[in-house]
Amino acid sequence: MQVKKNRVPRMTLNDRIHQDDPLELPKVGRPIELSNEVEKAVVDCLVLCGQYQYPMRRRDLQRFIQSYCTEHNVVTR
Q1: DSSP string over the chain
Q2: Is residue 72 part of a domain?
Q3: Which residue segment(s) compose the domain that 39 sits in?
Q4: pTM (global) more than 0.90
Q5: Residue 74 lies in a domain
Q6: Residue-wise pLDDT tens digits, 12-52
């Protein structure tokens, strides 16, 4: 039996079979604060900085995002 071989719980398989879209994974973690468009723009900015040999450190990125949120009145937790 495949269930025992792969050790997938029966209820997990049952839930996946009865979902509207069985390939859609449940959302885990914190909800997002920024839209997908803003996140894509941030990634594009980081890539551009890398192309110009201007690496951003983690703290630089945090300040960049913080200034964006402050400027656009984005409420975060």
Answers
A1: -HHHHHT--HHHHHHHHTSSSTTPPPP-SSPPSS-HHHHHHHHHHHHHHHHTT-PPPHHHHHHHHHHHHHHTT----
A2: yes
A3: 34-77
A4: no
A5: yes
A6: 888 778 776 656 666 778 888 888 899 999 999 999 999 99
